[in-house]
Each structure stands twice: as C-alpha cells, then as structure tokens.
Amino acid sequence: MFATSSSADGRTLLVLESSKTFLDKGKLEDSVNYGTKALAKFIAVCGPYHRMTAGAYNLLAIVLYYTGDFNQAIIYQQKTLNINERELGLDHPDTVKSYGDLVVFYYRLQQTELALKYLQETLKCNQRLLGADHIQTAASYHAIAIALSLIEAYSLSVQHEQTTLQILQAKLGVEDLRTQDAAACLEYFVSKAVEQQEAVRNGTTVI
C-alpha cells in the first residue's frame, strides 16, 4: 500500500520547490536533478498514479523542455496526462492543462498532427466545462484553425475561425480587439483557401 498525500513529508516537497526555484533562476541542470529526486520520492511515498506524482512529472517535463530535451519532456508530460485522466477525469482543469502542455511540446517538435489531436481534446473539454459559446472555447477553435493552417488545411481553418468569430462577436462585440483579430485571421484563411482552390482548378485544366 502506498501512503496518502499527507504522508509526503516536508523534505520531499522542499526538494520539489527547490527544483522550481532553480528553474526560475535558469539553473536547469540543478532543476532537473532536484526534480528527478522529488519524482522518485513521490512515486515511493504516494505511488505512481497520484496527483502529486503527476505534478512532479509535469515539472520535470517543463524543465526538460527548456533544456531542449523535447522527446523526454513529452514522455513525462504524457505520464502527467495519463495520471490526471485516470485520477481526476477528462473534465478536470488539470487534465485540460495537461493537454495544452502537450500541444506546446508537439508544436516545438513540428508534429502538428499530434498537436492537433490534443487541441481537439482541449476543445471538447472546454465545451463540456465552459459551454459551446464561452470565450475560452473560442480560443480553442482559434488554436485549431492556426494549427490547421500550418498543414495548409485552409478550408478547415476557415470553418474553425468562423466559429471563433461568431462566439467573440456575440460575447465581446465587433469593436473588441480579439474579435477584430479573429476577423483578420478569417480573412487570411479565406484568401489562402481560395488560392488553393484556384491552384487545384488550374492543375486540373493543365492535365
């Protein structure tokens, strides 16, 4: 049997805080060392599927991201997500944050398709937690539109950005800068989608 979170002694928490402090100071090697020690202690005391263990995995993932070890960062962040999904559920804010962190990591590795997968999960969570017309839900639609544009899926970008704009117009009004930014993005995506369609038609004509 593993101990409960209350059994995680102060020294273990202090080690984790030391890792955070070193990260803030830019001392990444020290942060990794202390974070690794904290993770091992949390696994031993709380077990491999505990919220505090998830927190230690998440911190290490962030530190490793800053060191440039993106692959290992993704491994640890995936463990964070697995624990949060299992222990907290799909709709918990910590789980949603885990999706968002994975999106950042996959973007950094230029793995846009995988980033899109977790953006879609974030969107679903925001829809369930906040509602289909919430501003944060609009932000998820916008992020997906941007990601789709990176793989030149402009027609799909248009669809998602249209939803973004509709929500922001209803919630914030047409004068809000966020609404205006969404309108500008939509205009750009539409222009790129038209270019693609024309290129396809021209290519077909040539053939």
From TrEMBL:
Gene3D superfamilies recorded: Tetratricopeptide repeat domain
> What keywords tag this UniProt record?
TPR repeat
* Pfam families in UniProt: TPR_10, TPR_12
Under the heading SUPFAM superfamilies, the entry gives: TPR-like (SSF48452)
Report each TPR repeat as a residue range: 54-87
This protein's source sits in the domain of life called Eukaryota
InterPro entries listed in its UniProt record: CLU_prot (IPR027523), TPR-like_helical_dom_sf (IPR011990), TPR_rpt (IPR019734)
Q: Where are the coiled-coil regions? A: none
Q: Which SMART domains match?
A: TPR
Write down what this protein is called: Uncharacterized protein
Species of origin reads: Zostera marina
